[in-house]
Amino acid sequence: MLTPTMPLCHAVIETGLPAVLCFSDYDLDLDCVLPDDECGAKKMTDHLLGLGHERIAFVDGIKYNTHFKSRRNGYIRAFEHKRQPVPEGLIFKYSGPDSINDLILEKKPTAIFACIDNYAYEIGVSLQKLGLKIPRDISLAGFDNRQPFISLMPTLTTMRTQQELIGTMAAKTLVERCANPDSPHRKLLLETELIDRGSCVPPKNY
User: Fold this and answer.
1) Exposed, middle or buried: residue 171 (CB in 10 Å: 0-12, 13-18, 19+)?
2) What is the crossing angle of helices 66-81 and 37-50, to 10°?
3) b or e along 7-19 (b: 16 or more beta carbons within 10 Å of the residue's beta carbon)?
4) 44-88 tens-digit pLDDT
5) I want to staple 78 with a disulfide (CB 3.0 to 4.6 A). Which of 39, 45, 84, 156 is the partner?
6) Residue 112 forms beta bridges with which residues?
7) pTM of this structure
């Protein structure tokens, strides 16, 4: 079972050994088990839209990552499903805590959805430095339910990925691959869960 880089994937494929990708999908000839990032991000964006937010910023990773891409697609899908335009200029490439200042001051989102929890944590610190309170002045959400980052005040609303189940299903898939080496490769997407901890509320004057 692997949570790999692309070169490692190719090296494993060349050996012919059975393998299962965990948390990754490089469209390679391997089985993979991963969270349904796109549906999870749509679920979180739907939650924010349901609270009355329209100016929802999506904070994306600066480097290419299949998880970030799927989560960005889920954010966009939520607006498309509601037949609402994606807010212009609010898909933002994160390059550090200070980079968020321009987004806040120029674009004035009422909610920020960060593609991973550690971005959300750093953004929360930046918001506090700007004198903004979460969630009174701005709502903040993350993704992954990482323990070090859920202790924001208030604690962070996020998406939980079923990491234990992903490990269990990956092991089961690997056993099945060993027993049936010529069967078609499978991609298993596991549902994510929205954990509402209070960092997202309706926008002011809603």
Assistant:
1) middle
2) 40
3) eebeebeeeeebb
4) 999 999 999 999 999 998 776 788 999 999 999 999 999 999 999
5) 45
6) 57, 140
7) 0.86
